Amino acid sequence: MIDVSPNDDPNGSDSIIQSVPLSDPSPDSRWFQNEQSAVSGQPQLPYSIAGYVDAIYNVALSYLHETLDHIALVLLAYSILCIVLYRALVHRERRWLVRRAHLPQCNRALLVTAHPDDEVMFFGPTILELRRRQCRVFVLCLSEGNHDRKGAIRRQELWDACESLGVRPEDITLVNATHLQDDPAAEWKTVTIANQLLRQVESLDVELLITFDKDGVSGHPNHCAIYYATASLCLSGMIPSSCKVLTLETVNLCRKYLSIFDLPLTLLLSTNWVILGWKARRAVQNAMRLHNSQMVWFRKLYIVFSRYMVINSLREINKSDVEFEILGT
């Protein structure tokens, strides 16, 4: 760089021309000079690999910041939508906007579970909604949950939890059979379960049968076995035509722990659902705490964050659905 400065010499000589050393150009300015040189046909300055990497890193970082800002705004908008929608659902004067529960009308319903605590851990909202409609709910539990040698304790916990949800003690049936033990490694025979189910359906004259779907919500083999036994009864036409069958939908792990923030997806994707108000949600949580023998740390987290404490989405199955699911597996 050439610096021209006026001469302060009293003799009045010409201006003094001084040479100022150039500073080392930055990678960005060097890239600009190279581009200008390429256009003018002048020789290009050498551009190092480190300069390319640094330029690419800066561009990627700016795009990342912009993307994260957009994601944050979307999550904020989605959260606000969930809260507003939930308040509209549970508010008594606004229930005409969206129905808080959509279930078939019935006077007698049978809930079939595998272990004590399943009735609250997964089906609590459904039980509360049916009892609110004055529907008589029968509970059939196919094992006493003796996997940890706590069968007697869990039996009493089952009765206490069901009573807290409004189920009569005489409407609870607990099966204690050697071939239906609480054990993920034990194979529950479809025929054995189907016989138990059919006996209860016919003797109780129920209009609604509720149980797990083919994935069993948690993937427990005992849960899944109940579905396949129910499906076999549907295929054979042994379930009375007056009795509808609903299965509790299994959702992915992310949705499972979204609590009320799974609400829009439930309303969009499900045909039958139950959504509890905050007070009713606490009733389900308190009922779950009555299963004190099962209150390990991760179940304490479950009752706080799980959608199954506040939302149940169910699907009605028929013969054609069962044929497709069973033949496809």
Automatic annotation (TrEMBL):
Listed Polar residues bias regions: 8-21
Region Disordered, residue ranges: 1-27
Pfam families recorded: PIG-L (PF02585)
Top-level enzyme category: hydrolase
UniProt keyword annotation of Membrane present: yes
Top-level taxonomy: Eukaryota, Metazoa, Ecdysozoa, Arthropoda, Hexapoda
Organism this protein belongs to: Anopheles dirus
Residues passing through the membrane, by range: 71-90
Key words of the record: Membrane, Transmembrane, Transmembrane helix
UniProt cross-references to PANTHER family, sorted A to Z: N-ACETYLGLUCOSAMINYL-PHOSPHATIDYLINOSITOL DE-N-ACETYLASE (PTHR12993:SF11), N-ACETYLGLUCOSAMINYL-PHOSPHATIDYLINOSITOL DE-N-ACETYLASE-RELATED (PTHR12993)
Protein name: N-acetylglucosaminylphosphatidylinositol deacetylase
